[in-house]
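> Could you send the Transmembrane protein prediction when you get a chance?

Sure thing. Input:
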Amino acid sequence: MSGPADTPGSQGDFEAYRADIEAAERRVASEIDPGGRGLVVAIGVFVLLASFLAPHTGAVRGWDVLFATNGADEALVTLPSRLFMWLALVFGVGFSMLALLTRRWAVAWVALAGSAVASVAGLLAVWSRQTVVQGHPGPGIGLILAWITVIVLTFHWARLVWSRTALQLAAEEQRRRSTAQRQARGLLEDLRRPEDQPPGE
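Output:
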């Protein structure tokens, strides 16, 4: 004899609820909760923006490096400096703010990857200014500040992304175990059902 929970309608309702629950779990797993690190990242973004107004090398500011204005060519600003400033602007500022506003895990990943690349480019930019032809200015306070800020942003995005990745892996493992248990119970119920039926049916 079958109970109300075994009717096709109730099973369909359960499957619908299970699908909704799994969809909600996936949605939550795809989001980040910056918490206190969100404030640190926001402050870092504003410091990074302020560094664009400070001298990058000599009298050439960060904005001048981006757009090759105000004597950037005369100061022999090289490709590593321009590349670093563009990466810092796009990923350190743009994607960091986008990740904080949307709280999407994928956007935070992009911010992390771009900031990590920008950190390496910043090292090359500082080195290129230290080895510039004699008579040209070395690295300015704006370049040093921008480089340190991008490193700090990379560190905090790495902590946020890694903590969310660990939670995602744990949730995925739990979903796999639950699915395997449900399938095993369903198989056992199917095997036992013919024995439970009275003779003659």
